[in-house]
Sequence to fold (260 residues):
Amino acid sequence: MGTGSNKPRILGIICNWCCYGGADLCGVSRFQYPPYIRLIRVMCSARVDLAHILLAFSTGQDAMFVGGCHLDDCHYITNGNYDALSVVTIARKLLEHVGVNPNRLRLEWVSAGEGIRFANIMNDFGSQVEKLGPLGKSEGISKDELKVRLEEVQKLVPYIKLVQTERLRAPLSLRVSGEQEQHYHKFFNSEEVNKIFKEAIFDKLAIGQIISLLHGGPMTTGEIAKGVGLTPSEVSRHLNSSSRQRLVRYDEDQKRYALA
Fold:
């Protein structure tokens, strides 16, 4: 594993009843895993919020791990690990959209009797993150730029939760077979869900990024496109929409867009 300042910063949030028990058994059994993985215990993996994940990355964590009970083995009647599965899947799509390698976020199920499984997962994840390097390295984006992008997503968390509740709720029917996780991934990667993400979340995020840039002063379409990582045609579409909503205006004298 890495040494010195090259050690990655990895944060893990794990459920009290199963994954924490597996981590505890791992320690009692003296199974080795990277010491730089910091663990936070919560009562259920459903307590992992989208805001927690985005905050972890925006404050410099190189990767994040979420651990819960095996599906259909949750200690609560609400089956909170399905909520964790939905949140992590949505978070991975958001991270990828803003330029973060989604492999920096990992979800696993570990029972209290699987100490060796916990150690194997931690060693594998730690090795994977070391190969990726510090946050932003494999992405080719500076940490400061990624922080700005992640903070823009954080501002939308309440809205994203509303969209999740109303339009991104996975059908309960996906839980009835032995391949629940595959069904969830298939649902969240379906054409219908991707369309919802684009129209309800990604477009709104782009407009928020554009407005944040314009707080620094008037800019051309090309300058905005470079700042938000979109094509000039995509930026023009968002600017036209924002103009109709009187969020931005075109300054004829400067030939630039500015806040309305």
